[in-house]
Design goal:
It is built from two helices and 15 strands. With about 230 residues, the chain is mainly beta. Strands 1, 2, 3, 4, 5, 6, 7, 8, 9, 10, 11, 12 and 15 form a 13-stranded antiparallel beta sheet that branches. Strands 13-14 form a two-stranded antiparallel ribbon. The longest helix is centred in the N-terminal third of the chain and has 17 residues, at about 1-20. Keywords: Signal.
């Protein structure tokens, strides 16, 4: 009895060693120049002139806990990341876009259908960051019903569901190729699967954090543009 159990155990162990543990694959990303577009902005919804009505940025000390306090929420901020604001952002923080190939999201990194557009991450660049700072990406951060924000969190390069809160599309606006003006939209779910439509809204003076509104049209569009001198 003991001998047969030992043989079975050795057989099972040998089988386990013969098949390596499957690891998550990685998404492959590359920075897209976008005609030097580095500034996030809000414009009014379609049908209105395409011009910035509010800028987005980062305050070096404005975190998720402060954003929650400003809207009267006592929910836990978790790792308490910085959040995007639309009132008095700190100069120097800027943004970029990296196109990513993700098997999980099932979108190409680039599509020429209609106006050229790419799929991937919105990068956040800290003007005071060092070479060893982790890469930050704009992230849809759900806290509780009615309270969702855009935060700056470590970019995920695991090709799994972690992409769903950091995957955006950027599309060149018609006739704007020389001015460096592009629209941004959140993907939310892998291609072919049901997803909510995500809209964004500028903050206020007292609650400056940008908020996320699933399936609720706010009247604003998110974009990235180049602001030359």
């Amino acid at each position: 009895m003991y001998a047969s159990s030992l043989v079975l155990g050795i057989f099972l162990l040998g089988g386990a060693l013969a098949f390596p543990v499957e690891r998550n694959s990685s998404v492959h990303c590359s920075i897209i120049p976008l005609n030097n577009a580095q500034s996030l902005y809000f414009s009014l919804s379609k049908g209105q002139p395409e011009q910035a009505v509010s800028s987005l940025g980062i305050r070096s000390n404005y975190t998720l806990s402060k954003a929650l306090h400003a809207v009267g929420s006592h929910a836990s901020p978790g790792n308490n990341p910085l959040v995007l604001v639309s009132s008095h952002p700190v100069p120097g923080y800027h943004f970029g876009f990296e196109a990513c190939t993700s098997t999980h999201m099932n979108y190409p990194s680039y599509s020429a259908s209609g106006s050229p557009h790419w799929y991937g991450h919105i990068r956040v660049y800290n003007p005071h960051g060092g070479a060893n700072d982790s890469a930050l990406c704009v992230t849809k951060r759900w806290v509780e019903p009615g309270h969702e924000f855009l935060s700056a969190e470590a970019c995920s390069y695991d090709d799994n569901s972690s992409q769903e809160c950091q995957f955006f599309t950027v599309q060149q606006l018609s006739g704007k190729s020389k001015t460096g003006k592009y629209s941004l939209g959140m993907i939310g779910a892998p291609k072919g699967k049901w997803s909510k439509h995500y809209y964004f809204q500028p903050g206020t003076t007292k609650a400056p954090a940008v908020t996320v509104h699933p399936d609720y049209e706010t009247g604003y569009r998110l974009g990235i543009e180049h602001r030359g001198k």
